[in-house]
Amino acid sequence: MAEYLRSSTRPVQSDSPTLDWTLVLAGGEGTRLAEYVERRFGHRIPKQFCRLLGSRSMLEHTLDRLNRLTPAARTLAVIGTDQAALAMPQLAGRCDHVFRQPAARDTGIALYVALAMVLRWTPNAIVAITPADHYVAPADAYVEQVRRARSIAARRRDTVVLLGARPTEPDPDLGYLAIGGPIASLPGALAVDAFVEKPAVTRASALIRGGALWNTMVMCATASTLWELGRAVEPGLFDLLEALIPLVGTRHEDTALAHVYRTAGALGFSRGVLERSPARLVAVALDGVEWSDWGRPERVETTLALRRSRALVSDASALVA
Questions:
Q1: What radius of gyration, in Å, describes the C-alpha atoms of the chain?
Q2: Buried residues in 138-164 as b, exposed as e (16+ CB within 10 A)
Q3: pLDDT digits (tens, 9 = 90+) for 162-174
Q4: Domain tally, the chain
Q5: 320 assigned to some structural domain
Q6: What is the CATH number of the domain that holds 289?
Q7: pLDDT digits (tens, 9 = 90+) for 25-35
Q8: Residue 266 — left, alpha, or beta (φ > 0 → left; ψ -120 to 50 → alpha)?
Q9: Residue 67: closest CA among 100, 21, 115
Q10: In Å, how far from its chain's centre is CA 46?
Q11: pLDDT (tens digit, 9 = 90+) per residue, 242-267?
């Protein structure tokens, strides 16, 4: 069995254009939240494995939402080099395929190595990609928006469909989607004029005034379209990655994966790929859905405080009634 890629079921192999996959990016180290996690739980572990809300971890919340759209048999998670002991119990039953990275790399490398696996198994698949550490509510409305994004990606197979959240402040840590207007042929889809990764506060404010959305890093697209966008900006890297595809599932898989991680340079997906490809992007707005990138302690505490306040109001209303 492969050391880096573990599958509890045999990967589906098909050329069908109607099959879908979910790819969960769960390999972050959670550095920005490390002290906060230690204060709450007494030790430092990456935030996606923490039970910051309720009895499930952020990773478990993420998978439970997306399993409504894609079964565990077509769900692939990317985890960090030393995260298997934390991750595997939480992934069991929710995600049948787990790629443990040989080394720490930027998001782009993790994403594209995982896509190489999907392309080996189901080359015409539509893939929903999501981080593992974001807060969304309510779950039902969110899942329907992801379903809509996936449907749009199926209709326009040369496009990446990004879920965008309505900004509440000019946050310089997030990416922004400058919105053009509705696309008549794709109900629910919005044109993207520009993708701006982590702008200064002044520019973020201007983007918000112009109707921009926050990029949630949740997206749907065909695996081949995502691959094409990456190859356009880093052709040398993709020569290396394309040599990996036929080796997935063979006895050479581990050697090939280790070689990619030893040889490839860094590739930031947002800045390196999406920011350079606005003509291939469309957006779906997360209307009626609360979203927060829990990358800073104050974001977590603000969300939790709002939830407690609403619960108190709801309890008081019930008593009055």
A1: 19
A2: eeeebbebbebbbbbbbebeebbbbbb
A3: 999 999 999 999 9
A4: 1
A5: no
A6: 3.90.550.10
A7: 999 987 889 99
A8: beta
A9: 21
A10: 16
A11: 999 999 999 999 999 999 999 998 89
